[in-house]
Design a protein that fits this description.
Mean pLDDT: 82
Structural class: mainly alpha
Radius of gyration: 22 Å
């Protein structure tokens, strides 16, 4: 009987981990990493706890696989969020600001100066993630 409860806990753990992950990546897709990530961390830790509880109760193989995935997700994402702060510096460039002078290499390997962009509409895209 406890094996059945453990299997249900393992599947529930995976369900929680997947739901929180989908919500996290939906927020990130909009470049809207929240300043307060507490709810996400709590969700991942709930998945982790349920996954461990599944093994304590005993589980069938598929409940164990679900529990292992939930534990991995429950550990990995909060760990990466904790080691990579996404603070915006005081001198950060805001939308509409003039870009500072810089030199860079284009996609063809040629160096260019930001002065050459003057008078043109320019989109500078930076990849921002939580890890």
């Amino acid at each position: 009987m406890t094996e059945k409860r453990g299997t249900v806990l393992g599947l529930a753990a995976l369900g929680v981990a997947m739901a929180v992950s989908v919500a996290w990546f939906a927020v990130n897709r909009q470049v809207g990493i929240p300043d307060d990530r507490t709810l996400f961390v709590v969700g991942f830790l709930v998945a982790l706890t349920l996954g461990v509880a599944a093994f304590v109760r005993g589980t069938k193989w598929y409940g164990g696989m679900a529990a292992v995935l939930a534990i991995l997700i429950g550990i990995f994402l909060p760990f990466t969020m904790s080691i990579s702060r996404q603070d915006v510096g005081a001198s950060a460039i805001r939308v509409g600001d003039a870009i500072p002078r810089f030199t860079a290499v284009d996609e063809f390997g040629k160096r260019f100066d930001s002065e050459s962009l003057q008078g043109h509409l320019v989109l500078i895209k930076f990849f921002r993630a939580h890890w």
